[in-house]
Amino acid sequence: MLNPFHFSFAVPDLDAAKAFYVDVLGCSLGRDHGTWVDVLFFGHQLTIHAGADAIQSGRLDHFGPILSKSDWQALADRLHARDVEFESPPELTGAGTAAETGKYLLRDPAGNLLEFKFYHDCSAVLGRKP
Hints:
alpha+beta
């Protein structure tokens, strides 16, 4: 079984993108924060940002897997052991709760930004229960 994948990117018109992915393609809408939305894209997570918000964040156009917590931690340990420099070190939020999540970011040799995530409750990928 494959892990879900996520991809985060900016669009010039968030409303048009949301209408396309949800209404035209039939994807499910998850969290909607006004300047960005999550969309369940055929089992994978898209985080679509409004252009201005995305440019200010400095960490857009990234991708990566959604792992189990044990795989997420094992990879973080491996990266630490190899002295890999993190763009953003491993961070837990909501530790010990049903909302527990973790993420870290690093760049590949070409400068591509990779984000590794886990969700205690994978339905939290979209911020909604299935």
